[in-house]
Amino acid sequence: MRARHELRVVSVYEGFFSGGARIVHSDIVLGLREGGQHHQVLSLYGEVHREATRQRMEDDACYRALTASGVGVTSLGRTFFGTGVSADFTGPELAETARAMAGADVILSLKEQPLALLNQAGLPRRPVVVCLHRSDPENQGRALDDLKAAIADGTVAACVCCAESTRAAYRAAGIPAELLHVIPNGVDLFRFRPDAARRVGLRTELGIPAAAPVVVFAARYDAMKNVPLLLSAARAWLARVPDGQVLMCGAGMTEANPGLTADIGAAFGPEQGRLADRLRLLGVRRDMETLYAASDVVALTSSWGEAAPLCLIEGMMCGAVPVATDVGDSAAIVAGHGLVTPPDPEAIAEAWSEAVGRREALAPSFAANRERFSRTRMIASYAALLERVHTGAATRRTSPEPF
């Protein structure tokens, strides 16, 4: 009996930097590899400067997890300074890309940005699956045009949408409906779960009393996250909840970011000295399961772009009540488990207090719906789609030309 073919997949990243899409995709790669596929990763950038933070590929948690599990990761060695992906690729860069693609059956593109590279003439023809993680396709520079060009060229075999809002937005932007497949985000349910020991441990580390209500905001410092709205809500909430604490973590969430410190000053004004000592800036953390387990509320104040925010799912699975603005699939994720708010600081602060009070009552709904947010379900869906894409491409290659 002939041995079953081991599917060979190359993922192309724009770069390694803090963000939910990279976390989800890297976890998918690890899960697919555990299931028997062979995976490699090619990154356009080896170093990224964004969110007021220098982020080297080798320092990134996703990079370390991939390489520790035996996934080969290479880079074109570029440095990103916030100017977008250039289409001017050098001969050595194209040769490195061609070598990576030549050994693959299928290419996974993490979002549309790598298509600026994959659309270059002369590269091996391989079916490309584009993973879409936003709900604003027309707000990402040239990326939508690159996606449409790759579809017109026949390069793109499928697009994975992490949310229904993503599918709707890309269909409205002109992407053929038959290419758009929804696979909702999922998380490792063993890692992300309520944990009393983690809760006590982090609160002890940060000097937070056991009974103090805690709100966590996990996001990179980006305009779409609407950090000024979060800070205005934090000021209102901390003023009315004397023992409340707000934890801010993610790229750029440190005192070293002048934009953030200016936002804090603008939001808190003369009350900064009295209230802001209960606003903790924690930067990038690699123990998010601990931060969520130690919190009572996970907050999201984004204005646009979100699809299926990972922070809401991870926080909820750890027992934190999600409170979010109505963007992307946030309302659908939160339904029955938390609260949706208008983009108003006072309304958000009130919702945080309501969520703290309802946390224990909502716990059974979190437990009953864990399978819906399962990493296992997500990875199985990706595996099935990749196999279908590969089988379809192989069938087309072996089919005789019509007379």
Structure description:
The protein contains 15 helices and 14 strands. It has 403 residues and is α/β, with parallel strands linked by helices. The protein folds into two domains: 8-186 and 374-394, Rossmann fold (3-Layer(aba) Sandwich), CATH 3.40.50; 196-373, 3-Layer(aba) Sandwich (Rossmann fold), CATH 3.40.50.2000. The strands form two sheets. Strands 1, 2, 3, 4, 5, 6, 7 and 8 form an eight-stranded mixed sheet that branches. The chain has a six-stranded parallel sheet with strand order 11-10-9-12-13-14. Strand 6 (128-132), helix 5 and strand 7 (156-161) form a beta-alpha-beta unit. Helix 1 (20-34) runs parallel beside helix 2 (61-68) and helix 8 (227-240) crosses helix 14. The radius of gyration is 22 Å and the shape is globular. 49% of the residues are buried. The model is unreliable at 399-403 (pLDDT under 50).
